[in-house]
Design brief:
It is found in: Endoplasmic reticulum membrane; Microsome membrane. Its cofactor is heme. Belongs to the cytochrome P450 family. Keywords: Endoplasmic reticulum, Heme, Iron, Membrane, Metal-binding, Microsome, Monooxygenase, Oxidoreductase, Signal. The chain is an alpha+beta fold. 51% of the residues lie in helices and 10% in strands. It has one domain: Cytochrome P450 (Cytochrome p450, Orthogonal Bundle), CATH 1.10.630. The strands form four sheets. A six-stranded mixed sheet has the order 1-2-3-8-5-4. It has a two-stranded antiparallel sheet with strand order 6-7. It has a two-stranded antiparallel ribbon with strand order 9-12. α7 packs across α10 and α12 runs parallel beside α16. The longest helix is centred in the middle third of the chain and has 32 residues.
Length: 451
């Protein structure tokens, strides 16, 4: 089946095309042929069994215009392997998945609570502050610094992230990605996107310069310090991937990925809990039973809180944040099932088709924590839960995001009752845009302090 459509259109067409042509089909987005893999078996086979062949990153012209093939998210080949290996090792050295990162998240959750208390129970739009919190967590890892919520430079950075996410999912950027050679020179929102990116890079370069001045090789503090030390080790290697340009791009990738995706999930989670107050009540019951009011939630609590754990998983499943995954590409000519896929072909792996599989998640369109609970109320894992993708390009932050989500949600519900401004049945939870990443509708709520 060969069609010419835009990404936002094709997301809605995937189920029908898969029903007509099977789990592997080709379509055209603009002038570019794209192979779509639909359903758990096809996605798993491609990203696990053929993980090496499909490890390249598919091209997105608007991203290519700013990252120049560098960094960790949109790079490919040997440079990508070096960056990913280094990043995973360094993040682990800095405590990713360990107690000290947990303590940073707990600290940030407390700051978040104090900020919500300032509203005194009045209507409040949580969008901005829920971006600041995860942004501060990743800043503590890469910059060894958290920012106050009224720091003007920090607030400006958060505005840039939010604005660029909105622009990235706009129809105009889809047009740019189809005919970049023409659109690049025209006026339009892509110019704002590129300008915002330059401002983010300027901020990062300022931080890198300060790190160069204070670096102690015997006592590295954060990701930038480790990278600068690696650059020094590799300075005689003409082919090294460890350059200042790659440092800036990798830090940008970590900064953006560690902020925006978690922020969107937190906002969607609160929106779902406003829509389903009975679920929020059950979480509070579990908090009262396991944690109480005299200490902060910690990750050890998760094992004793299966319902809350199930809710956090269901929020991520139902959100379906990156519906078609970030684009992969065939690294070489590849035989996949009965199909010959040429080198360089873009591959879309439909995460929606996995997260919304009715065989595994009955009534998948419904928000139901029972999707992750067994008959006895124990938490139930599922191989179909892959909001961070799977395989060689699984999200580097897959260990941090679940920690943030669990600790922030439990801390908020330990301290507040969430009050909607309208009848819960009238709350709209449908994203206002679904392109590469979901864009959520704005909303307000009241944070009423728990007695």
């Amino acid at each position: 089946a060969l069609l010419v459509i835009t990404l936002s259109m094709c997301l809605h067409l995937f189920p029908q095309l898969a029903k007509s042509y099977g789990p592997v089909f080709t379509l055209y987005i603009g002038s570019e042929p794209v192979v779509v893999l639909y359903g758990y078996e096809a996605v798993k086979e491609a990203l696990i069994d053929h993980g090496e062949e499909f490890a390249a990153r598919g091209s997105l012209p608007i991203i290519d215009a700013v990252n120049k093939g560098l960094g960790i998210v949109f790079s490919s080949g040997e440079k990508w392997k070096q960056m990913r290996r280094f990043s995973l090792t360094t993040l682990k050295n800095l405590g990713m998945g360990k107690r000290n990162i947990e303590e940073r998240v707990q600290e940030e959750a407390k700051f978040l609570v104090e900020e919500f208390k300032k509203a005194n129970g009045q209507p409040y739009d949580p969008r901005f502050i829920l971006e600041c919190a995860p942004c501060n967590v990743i800043c503590s890892v890469i910059f060894q610094k958290r920012f106050e919520y009224d720091d003007q430079k920090f607030l400006h950075l958060v505005e840039l992230l939010q604005e660029n996410n909105k622009i990235l999912n706009s129809p105009w950027i889809q047009v740019y990605n189809f005919i970049p050679s023409l659109v690049h020179y025209l006026p339009g929102s892509h110019r704002k996107f590129l300008n915002n990116w330059k401002k983010l890079q300027t901020f990062i370069w300022e931080r890198v310069k300060k790190h160069q001045e204070t670096l102690d090789p015997n006592d590295p503090w954060d990701f930038i310090d480790y990278f600068l030390m690696k650059m020094e080790q590799e300075k005689q290697n003409q082919e090294t991937a460890f350059t200042m340009e790659n440092l800036a791009q990798t830090v940008s990738d970590l900064f953006i990925a560690g902020s925006e995706t978690t922020s969107i999930t937190l906002r969607y989670g609160l929106l779902l809990l406003l829509k389903h107050p009975e679920i929020a009540d059950k979480i509070r019951e579990e908090i009262d039973h396991v944690i109480g009011q005299n200490r902060s939630p910690c990750m050890k609590d998760r094992r004793s809180m299966p319902y809350t754990d199930a809710v956090v998983h269901e929020i991520q499943r139902h959100l379906d944040l990156i519906p078609s995954n970030l684009p992969h590409a065939a690294k070489q000519d590849t035989q996949f099932r009965q199909y010959a896929i040429p080198k360089g072909t873009i591959i879309f792996t439909s995460l929606t088709s996995v997260l919304y599989d009715e065989k595994v998640f009955p009534n998948a369109q419904q928000f139901d924590p029972g999707h992750f609970l067994d008959e006895s109320g124990n938490f139930k894992k599922s191989n179909y839960f892959m909001p961070f993708s799977i395989g060689k390009r699984v999200c580097v932050g897959e260990g941090l995001a679940p920690m943030e989500l669990f600790l922030v949600f439990t801390t908020i519900l330990q301290n507040f009752t969430l009050k909607p401004l309208i009848d819960p049945k009238d709350i709209n939870i449908t994203p206002i845009a679904t392109g590469f990443v979901c864009v959520l509708p704005p909303y307000e709520l009241c944070f009423l302090p728990s007695l």
